[in-house]
Amino acid sequence: MLTMLAAMAEIERDLLVERTHSGLAQPKAEVQTLGRPALTTDEQRAAIIVQFKVGKSISALSRDHDDSRAGECVS
């Protein structure tokens, strides 16, 4: 009985993985960006990188651009 339940659980898990992969394949085929939208533009990120290289701290940059320290400021 337990073997049958384990087999059913494994089949359900395989179906879940298959649905996840097929759901991600469509946006990738359409060249859509997955994940959270960016808070800053390309120009803002370039300016942030220049300021960081000059010596401005990550904390100051994140405060100036309303972003978290772990955010996209200097990535």
3D architecture notes:
The structure is a single chain. With 75 residues, the chain is an all-alpha fold. It is 64% helix and 0% strand. The chain starts with a helix and ends in an 11-residue tail after the last helix.
Overall mean pLDDT: 86
Structural class: mainly alpha
Described by strand count, sense and barrel closure, the largest sheet is: none
Count the E strands.
0
Beginning-to-end CA distance, first to last residue? 52 Å
What amount of the residues lies in strands? Answer: under 5%
Quaternary organisation? single chain
Q: With helices defined by DSSP (H or I, 4 residues minimum), what is the helix count?
A: 3
Number of domains: 2
Helix/strand order: HHH
Q: Give the low-pLDDT segments.
A: none
- Judging from the principal axes of the Cα atoms, what is the shape? elongated
Rounded to an integer in angstroms, the radius of gyration calculated over CA atoms is 22 Å
Could you estimate the helical fraction of the residues in percent?
A: 55-70%
